[in-house]
Amino acid sequence: MRGLWRDLLLSALLGLLLFFLPDALRHLYGKASVSYLSVLISAVSLAVLALSWDILGRSGQLSLAHAAFYGAGAYTTAILVKLADWPLWIGIPLGGLVASLLALGLGSVTLRLRGIYFAIATLAFTEVIKTTVQQLPTSFAGGTAGINVTTLFRPHFIPGEMERWEIAYLRNERYFLLYAGLLLLAVIASLVVQHTRLRAAFTAIRTNEEVASVMGVKATRYKLLAFVLSSFLVGLLGATSAHRIGSVLPDETFGIGITVFALVTPIFGGLYTTLGPILGAGVLAGLEETLRRLFSEGYLIGYGLVLVLSVMFMPKGLVGLLAGFSIRRRQDRKKPGTA
Predict the structure, then answer these.
(1) What percent of the chain has pLDDT over 70?
(2) What are the tens digits of pLDDT across the range 186-219?
(3) What are the beta bridge partners of residue 148?
(4) Which CATH architecture fits 2-334?
(5) What is the DSSP string of 136-168?
(6) How far is CA 265 from CA 27, 91, 170, in A?
(7) pTM higher than 0.85, yes or no?
(8) I want to staple 123 with a disulfide (CB 3.0 to 4.6 A). Which of 64, 173, 181, 216 is the partner?
(9) Three-state DSSP state, 102
(10) Which secondary structure element, helix H or strand E, spans residue 248, and what is its range?
(11) Domain residue extents for the chain
């Protein structure tokens, strides 16, 4: 437990650093801080998505349903805003709750499946949810046209007192702090899994489920716990993003791209770690923005090429690469004749 408290303290320091980061960017870059802050929001959002998938991946499940839970959270808050006069903040925790309830129902039926069969079942579930939302009455779920969502933070433009970039900065700053809170929650969940009995149970299930069951590990119960916890975090993220973007559309909210990024980012950063998904999200968000500015619409080709090469030559991700460098440096220092 000592390691858990140490890592929780480091997480608190990370949260403190993120709290002061927007003001530092504003003082350093002025108007340009708006675009820098947007990239940081993308990185933090991607980190939450990656950490949530990594928690589930530790139990050995290849889930392709993250887009379903993301969309469930987004549509929950959108429908509440449209139909009920509830406070806007209520939709975010309810989005996480609805996503976790869907995961509980789906997991109870499909978690006995393994490998590619479970992956196909979760992918099909995403398409079912998407089609169902599109077929619901337009007055309720908006149909294929989607639903407009009220933003959480709307600073008013006052001529002569605030410039438009300052308004955009203030809005992005508040959303950044909200996303940072979600990231801190995801980090805490990952650390609890890493430093408690859950780690041993998940590792045993991932390695050999039959042997784990013989040893007394209730595999289905632990896998269901990982599935529900992962979906809760994704639901919170989807609800928050719906307010920030200002609308939810079925094709985008339930898009396969969300699931792909949830899967690729922890692989790129380093699976079954807390640092890996965060590191991978930061690098990929910066890389995407750089390629977008250099190649405009063709940036996706270069982006995909980088991901393919990284998976081929960095099987353990960025964390494994950094660990390899550290080991080599220690070995070099032990060699006779080295300083």
Answers:
(1) 94
(2) 999 999 999 999 999 999 999 999 999 999 999 9
(3) 247
(4) Orthogonal Bundle (1.10)
(5) S-HHHH-GGG-EE---S--PPP-TTT--HHHHH
(6) 31, 27, 29
(7) yes
(8) 64
(9) helix
(10) strand 247-248
(11) 2-334
